[in-house]
Amino acid sequence: MERKRQPIGVFDSGVGGISVLRELVKQMPGEDYLYLGDSANAPYGTKRLEEVRQMTIQNIENLLDQGVKSIVVACNTATSAAVADLRKMYPDLPLVGIEPAIKPATEQNPGGRIVVMATPMTLRQEKFCKLMKRYEAQANIVPLPCPGLMEYVERGDLDGEDLRKYLTELFWSVDHEPIDAIVLGCTHYPFARAMICQVVGETVRIYDGGPGTAREMRRRLQEAGLLNDSEGKGKVIFQNSYTDSDARKREQELCKKLLTLE
Ligand code: DGL
Fold first, then answer.
1. Residue whose CA is closest, atom 8 of ligand 1?
2. Three-point CA angle 70, 80, 256, nearest 5°
3. How far is the CA of 221 from the centre of ligand 1 (A)?
């Protein structure tokens, strides 16, 4: 198959990367996509760095073995753990990771109080500390680890009372002072956006790194002459690491549903 007609590989620890996939599909509808969620090993964000690094590399190799032309690491946690190694291993591969959208949040809210929601692992990493340092003179950046939040999305629970209670308690530690903006630093969290808005109030601006990541992939493919210019709609294939076929099918159905959510 001509290389530009090969699919784009998209990887996450579970269903969260669908929030990036939907931006990719919006911006490049003619492309085919192969989405892989390592749901059997999720969550990544509360694991050890070395474990996440190894699992990420293994999953990316799986996608490459299936013939993808490029990779989007649609997981902030996996990006901070493994993207530097992956770039060294595959210097010619168009490879894009995702990081918390602190840059636009700071630029659009100078001097503001910006809460960064992410997994404990993402917030512990050197990559995040450097990112925070770069912008801390321009805004008050407040990291907020959210262990347990991705699990609601993995269960497809996006508007239940338990989720509201979880978020209300989570924000107790940071909402004693007004919040100007929230950065969704985990790809699962955009699916909890409506509930987050209900809990913190509609005036707080929310930032998601998905659209920027999709734009960057488009730019990289164009630069490499790999953009699929065929007319018409491409196809999306969902894979996950569950070995039990019922669990696998349930997860695929959830992926399809999340892809159509606005
Ligand atoms: N979706 C992943 C991220 O963007 C994390 C979820 C997990 O803990 O596995 O960080």
1. 45
2. 55
3. 25
pLDDT at 182: 98
Could you identify the atom of ligand 1 that is nearest to the CA of residue 74?
A: 4
Q: What is the mean pLDDT of the chain?
A: 97
Alpha-carbon 139 to chain mean position: 23
- pLDDT, tens only, 64-103: 999 999 999 999 999 999 999 999 999 999 999 999 999 9
75 annotated active-site: yes
Q: Is 146 a catalytic residue?
A: no
Q: Which atom of ligand 1 is nearest to the CA of 45?
A: 8
- For the stretch 188-232, pLDDT in tens is 999 999 999 999 999 999 999 999 999 999 999 999 999 997 888
Q: How confident is the model at residue 240 (pLDDT cuts 50, 70, 90)?
A: very high
The preferred substitution site among 52, 116, 187 for testing ligand 1, maximizing ligand atoms within 8 Å of CB, is 187
Residues contacting ligand 1 via CB (< 6 Å): 12-14, 16, 42-45, 75-77, 119, 122, 150, 186-188
For residue 17, the ligand 1 atom closest to its alpha carbon is 1
Q: Which residues of 196-229 are buried (b: 16+ CB within 10 A; e: fewer)?
A: beebbeeebebbbbbbbbbebbbebbeeeebbbe
Beta bridge partners of 143: 116
Query: For 23-50, what is the mean pLDDT?
Result: 97
Give the chain's end-to-end CA distance (angstroms, integer): 33
